[in-house]
Amino acid sequence: MIQRPDQRVAVFIDTQNLYHSAKHVHNAHVNFSSLVEATVGSRQIVRAIAYVAKSKTGEEGAFFEAMLQSGIELKIKDVQEFASGAKKADWDVGMAVDAISLSTKVDAIVLATGDGDFVPLVEYLKGHGVMCEVAAFAESTNQRLREVCDAFMDLSEEPETFLMGSKQKRKRPLLAKKPAKNTTKEDEGGDRKIRITF
Q1: CA 116 to CA 146: how far, in whole Å?
Q2: pLDDT tens digits for 137-148?
Q3: Is residue 40 part of a domain?
Q4: Does 192 reside within a domain?
Q5: In a domain, 141, yes or no
Q6: Which domain holds residue 123?
Q7: What is the number of structural domains in the chain?
Q8: How remote is the C-alpha of 191 from its chain's centroid?
Q9: Do 91 and 14 meet the contact criterion of CB atoms below 8 Å apart?
Q10: Residue 187: count of CB within 10 angstroms of its CB
């Protein structure tokens, strides 16, 4: 996919999804400012929104402040704690509603998540003429989400850029390839490279 400087882009970050993926896959933290910067590239950023959860202890304060200083807007929801001890702070619906609301004002939307629940959102956006890109860790990204998006950026391909506390070195180019539509394994097309930073 070709990026043009005149394209308007909005970035929506599923913070919990990327946080847990980075922790479990790489034992590191996401560099969110680098994520936004890379996915937007030379294009015009309209908004970058991170969806976060706030605990009762407020231990996330420094993290929230760092995000704000990077120019990332925050949408905050309190963590719900149930009698069973389970905790929940689901932003999927809110993130989808915001993406649909902003879709008339942008040319491309970047979803920073590996959650397969966003497949219907990607299909909706594409059906309404908006390019939809996904940036996440390949190891924890839903396969169907990778297939339906216009471009996929594998954050694991460049750990020195997208992770903090990682000792890994880049193994191959950032651009991930995926089969072109209606092709076989022998007839594969390429995707464009997307770079996102936080």
Answers
A1: 9
A2: 999 999 999 999
A3: yes
A4: no
A5: yes
A6: 8-49+93-164
A7: 1
A8: 16
A9: yes
A10: 9
